[in-house]
Design a protein that fits this description.
By secondary structure, the chain is mainly alpha-helical. It has ten helices and two strands. It has a two-stranded antiparallel sheet. Helix 5 runs antiparallel to helix 10, helix 6 packs antiparallel against helix 9 and helix 7 runs parallel beside helix 9. The longest helix has 57 residues. The protein is globular. It starts with a helix and ends in an 11-residue tail after the last helix.
């Protein structure tokens, strides 16, 4: 049918009384027009594919952005106890709460599972994890090893400007020591904020993932939900300052030793608070 249309169009291009116009010229016109038609179809396919790809990319990016936002909101709600430990997570309820579709919600849930804040069991579904005292002690034991390594790497890799920022971070805490609210503020964010910066300064992506995207959130969750009071904020601040000094001096060995001692002291304090000091030998530190 297309060929017939092209032949008719070609004949229409030839004046009825045009002298010397033979069938072979009509064939040439048909070939030329067929080539133009083929080029036109190819262009249409390219444009169509590009538009579809752009549309799919835009939708995928939008879903990823929504999933990121919901992941952050749900993680904060779990860590701060707004979504209680051990509670079952209903997808319909969460979808309605955050006003999103199931796709982005499931992606956010998958990420929460990967950070160990949510666990999924057969015939039970997804639930917020419940931390035991022993699990909290295990977190401190792992942190001692990993953060010691992070401090040593930070002494080797952090820039002078980044180290100066660590000192700036400590200044308001030294200034506000006399404030009654300071200890609470330091315990909630000030303590782990410095640890975040040092781990980031280590420049090891896997180390950052294990600590900043996993263990720190579990530690915050336990603090918030069980109301653990540090009781050693002043000592912790002094220990922070010594770690920063060692990093500034580029003494990786000393920085690692000081950081490990700092985490170990925190663990032993928590053990005393939890009464775990009378537990099995491996929990006594």
């Amino acid at each position: 049918m297309i060929v017939d249309i092209i032949v008719d169009m070609a004949r229409a291009e030839v004046p009825p009384q045009a002298p010397g116009i033979g069938e072979w010229m009509i064939v040439d016109i048909i070939v030329d027009m067929a080539r133009v038609a083929a080029m036109f179809r190819a262009i249409c396919r390219i444009v169509s594919t590009t538009c579809v790809s752009d549309s799919i990319g835009a939708v995928t990016g939008e879903v990823a952005t929504i999933a990121d936002r919901v992941f952050e909101q749900m993680r904060r709600a779990i860590v701060e106890g707004e979504i209680p430990a051990g509670s079952k997570i209903s997808e319909p309820a969460m979808a309605e709460r955050f006003r999103i579709s199931r796709g982005p919600l499931r992606e956010a849930m998958r990420r929460l599972e990967s950070t160990n804040l949510v666990e999924r069991r057969p015939n039970v579904g997804a639930r917020v994890i419940t931390l035991s005292n022993a699990q909290l002690i295990e977190i401190y034991q792992i942190r001692e090893a990993l953060e010691g390594m992070a401090a040593r790497l930070a002494a080797q890799r952090m820039t002078d400007d980044a180290i100066a920022e660590l000192r700036v971070l400590l200044e308001p805490h030294h200034r506000d020591l006399a404030d009654e609210q300071w200890q609470t503020s330091f315990q909630q964010e000030g303590d782990l904020e410095l640890h975040d910066r040092i781990v980031d300064g280590a420049g090891n992506r896997r180390l950052i993932g294990m600590l900043c995207d996993d263990l720190y959130h579990l530690a915050r969750m336990y603090r918030c939900q069980f109301g653990i009071k540090s009781g050693r904020a002043r000592d912790a601040l002094k220990e922070h300052a010594m770690v920063v000094d060692a990093i500034a001096e580029r003494d990786g060995e000393l920085a690692e030793w000081l950081m490990r001692r700092h985490i170990r002291a925190s663990r032993r304090h928590v053990e005393r608070q939890l009464g775990a000091i009378a537990g099995p030998p491996e929990l006594r530190g």
